[in-house]
Amino acid sequence: MEERMRIIQGDITQITVDVIVNAANSSLLGGGGVDGAIHRAGGEDILAECRMIRAKQGSCATGEAVITTAGRLPAKYVIHTVGPVWNGGSKNEEQLLESCYNNSLLLAVKHNCETIAFPNISTGIYGYPKELAAKVAIRTVESFLQTNKGIKEVVFVCYDFENFSVYKKELKEM
Ligand code: AR6
């Protein structure tokens, strides 16, 4: 296993890394799940920055990512990426989920971040099957790390025990 990847079970708002990733929606205006938790814990500065981004570029397409500062959170930045809604698997969900991880990592590198934490994008409200999503996440991050030496650590933060078990199993099998 790529030694710069690790998994923990916990709340991503509590993690001290350079940047945490948010599983947002295309409005960028907040929502439930991890998105709600990040905006609640980080305070209104994050939402104000999201509104400025919307004013400039409009909404954020699925698979794309934008970056803001992190308000009161221990991280320096929040990358907001929009995962695909699971629609049975034939609506390009896999490529879109891959893009979320790749675009987030690219944005992190662009902002000189060395440590990044991901939630299990799309596996909550958006219904992406957890095992399939974990395979995509791990494979995409691993191949990104092969050509990038600037990122020192990628933490997969699993909130629910089911995702934590799935990640443990997938990483063991590598
Ligand atoms: N820290 C880490 N992971 C968390 C936390 C937390 N504090 N809270 C929940 N999770 P979801 P999605 C996990 O639904 O499926 C929002 O309303 C959760 O267990 O947050 O991409 C957005 O605004 C799950 O494994 O995101 C969008 O409308 C994972 O985060 C929509 O939900 C993702 O679940 C996005 O849906």
TrEMBL record:
Protein name as catalogued: RNase III inhibitor
Q: Which residues form the Macro domain?
A: 1-174
PANTHER family reported in the protein's UniProt record:
GANGLIOSIDE INDUCED DIFFERENTIATION ASSOCIATED PROTEIN 2-RELATED, MACRO DOMAIN-CONTAINING PROTEIN
Tell me any Pfam family this protein matches: Macro
Q: Which SMART domains match?
A: A1pp (SM00506)
